[in-house]
Amino acid sequence: MSAPTGRGSDARSGPGGAPVPRIDAYEKVTGATRYAADRTPPGLAHAALAVATVGRGRVARVETAAARAVAGVLLVVTRFEEHELRPAGYRLSGGYGFQSLQPLLDDRIAYRGQPIALVVAETPVAAAEAAALVEARYEAAPAVAVTLDAAGAETVGQAAALPQPMFADLAMGDADAAFARSPVRLDAEYDIGAQHQVPMELLGTVVEWRGDDLVVHECTQNSGAVRHGLARQLGIAPARVRVVSPQVGGGFGQKTWLQSHVGPLAVAARRLGRPVKLVVDRTQTFHGSTFRPASRHRLRLGADRSGLLTALVHETRQQTSRHDLFASDFTSVTARLYGIGDFRGHQRLTRTDVQTPGFMRAPFEHAAVFALESAVDEIACATGHDPVALRLANDTGSDPVTGRPFSSRHLAACLRRGAELFGWAARTPRPGSMRAADGTLVGWGVAAGAYRASAGPAVARLRLAADGRIAVEVSGHEMGQGLRTAIARTVALDLGISAGGVRVGVGDTGEVPQHLTAGSWGTATALPAVHAALRRLRSCLGAPDEGPLDTVAAAAERAAAGRPEAVVEAVSLPPGQSARAVDRLRAGLPTPAGPEYPGFSAFSFIAHFVEVRVEPAIGRVRVPRVVSVVDCGRVASPVTAAGQIRGGVVWGIGAALRERGEPEPRHGGFHHADLAEYLVPVNADVGRVDVDFVDVPDPLVNPLGVKGCGEVALVGVAPAIANAIHHATGRRHRALPIRVEDVLAPEDDRNGNCP
Amino acid sequence: MRPFSYRAPATLAEAVAALADGGPGARPLAGGTSLYDLMKLGVEAPSAVVDIGRLPELAGFDTAGPEELVFGAGASMADVAEDAVLRADYPALAESLAKAASPQVRNMATVGGNLLQRTRCGYFRGGPAFDCAKRRPGSGCAARGGLDRGHAVLGTSDACTAAYPGDWAVALLAFDARLDLYGPRGARTIALADLHRGPADAPHEEHTLGAGELVVRIRVPTAPAGRGSVYHKVRDRESFAFALASAAVALTLDERGRVAHCRVALGGVATRPWRAEAAERAVVGGPLTEEAAVRAGEAAFADARPGAHNAFKVRLGARVVARALRTAAERAAGRAVA
After folding, report:
1. Interface ipTM
2. Can you list the domains of chain A with their CATH numbers?
3. The pTM is what?
4. Which residues of A touch B129 (CB under 8 A)?
């Protein structure tokens, strides 16, 4: 992989300031970083889970004698009492759990891999051995439904099933009539398979009771939900629960809500009077938390002969669980990527026998934009227009859904600069017309992407220590995306000090209130609070509102005057939000605003340019280079933002060509539940990735002008790859992932020579 | 993890005795890359583990001899893959190792242990929820009608369609490799071709080694076909993935460019390392044209029996054979080593 290109903010100084290296990089690469499961308090006991081996039914009897007989086993629990463990509630119903179902409360088995027993032992080895010896007799249902097409899967209209405005179907104009009279029409169906987040850090929890207080070290993007969810489950005051999550080893949406095993762990620790740790093993994580559900998209896209898009009907079906409706939002982005006046969306949910799916990086936008940007490419081919030119021609300055302007929209700049960096002008349009020196087919593809620029309320506390260093505590979590670096750099630039003199604390409910860090709103949520707290600090110190501030001298002056350390706190709210949002923050509930704000809509934008090399004879596709240009407002932390974009591109390669959560249609659950068989990209799959930023501050979303970049990074990578494959071979691929058997040239084409 | 005894004998004779002592539950441990994995899954639950990783009799390898290449069973895959002689004169052997697993695994795994790597069938590895005649003789086969994309299309039986996952044994099969064994009844030598069993009605019997018998070394006769050899592997990603289809080809050309000698072996598509004699017959005696290569590829899969999701392997496998034949011929002719 290459370094970011020289253009853009990496090389720029000036008002944006010099880039700051990732402040926790040294600890990470030397192994010094402490993750939740690295904690080993005295007396620690170790837990393991035994899980259901049927896909649906009831557990008739759980045999635990063999497990209990294992040396070192302290506790085997197959059923908790209602008074000691209550459900945490589903997050869409005002609860805190990733699903409504709390295992180990009754005999219902809703999915294969559901916990049927919790074992606690003196060592992890004894716990694992005992868990493996737990045997259950089941009354299994005669059939399971784990795919969209399974008999027994039940499909409901989302708007009818969830009658709240945010889940309603979008419609502008008369899309069906406009489509019918469009001279160029595409009617196509797109399939996106299930995917798993598989962060390197496994789900890990350490629970410790200190008297009546509970301290939980948990890898979570949402320590607030863990706190409040546990309080509800255990029937104690939230103030008695402290959740600490300073470093998450990758979340990608898997760690956004209270996991089903944390409550049982807290009860076990209380019964034993000892701290307890659980690390969920890799195979169990495929069923122990959320995943990206399978979805299907039917698109009817109309255009005129000049390539102007005239109508879009986007009908979707997304997998959910039998017990919860995981609401989808595919159409928010497809209704706005281009200036299409006539739009109709219809979203449906299909109940299947799985754990409740959930958010995974660009949870809806990845799939929705794969469908739309594949379709747009087909329209470009059908009308004989260059795919970049066609996208530029369909750009819009105002939000087609609301009619109001975008706060900022530099998609055209992304496309133009990307085309220039990539060398797009040298592309010959005819599929199969470009070949490499070794004879392999070359394909160049492009796709755009967008992701809502959300933000929520946040609290920041700044402390000026006696030595002049600044300590910051903020609502937010560090999952590797670089939030701590962005905060340190913001403070350093504001005060004119070194980022090394700033200590950043995140993810600790014992400091400031915490809620979900996800949806690319982390930076745009935390930085305004830090910015506001900096103003308070300056005022408290009697310093001017901007300009360098000698923190060492200021601290010494206070000390000499016998005054305590300066501690200030500030609350920030995104445009249009009231103080009620802060109440929700204090209750551990997320309150993201956007993409619609009073008077404007806000999105981040991206353009991806991809080169593929295809050998159709053997179905092989390689991705030697990608250029991605991003509009995420002002770039708050150039080094970590570029890392986010490169990571998103790697994710896109995986999503387009490799990863597939494979449902087992007869037994339920996901097959191939390990990293040898669930195929994330390896280094050899990733070629050169060049990243550039528009880096123009957004004038409206927040005082710092930042929009998110972690999610938009993935949006559009997969269709750019699919479009590039089409350019190489002349064949369209409308299902992800695109695998060897899909690219493999047909029987009658022995040599794999395509038109 | 279940308790087991652990012994690390100092000599081959002691190791074989320890394995005999351990009875049917004893397993030898070399690199551990497969055994530990299967123990964690509960597929293997040895009562006795005999560590053969430091036995001097299994160590090292020698590719300099005039008669044969000799590989101690305990040599690491990484060391052998990097051998300069092998890379120059027997590229198929070096490539089969270099394209297997990941650098970390190749550093640990041994060329002897790799021969007997067990299948990646998800139902085999998935534990007691699934019927698997390899794990529980006579219990049936959950892969039949199930998720069998990665499974075999050659050499299958009603009891099992699991694919043999290895690469190295496939390449060795193209070179008449022989194995020196040592067991409770002493030493013997067998052809590599006789090591693996097809599933028939007893898929749990995967090899012909006797109880407590160990592979001591692998011997490959020196052969001019070495330079005209290739291991071509198609997989789901560019590294760290098992073959969807692979072919090892070793051949020589006569002075007029006709194929004089040819061996073709297949991986990823068969229940055991698979010699494709029909493909060999299809090319021997003639020039290796594109048409001849395609014909040979199709001949190799004439008897294929695909399952529910792996029919593409027939088409893919035939093309892999065709391409491997063409590459091998180019190498044999001294042209463009890819």
Report:
1. 0.96
2. 1-12+386-453+594-755 (3.30.365.10), 454-593 (3.30.365.10)
3. 0.96
4. 53-54, 112, 667
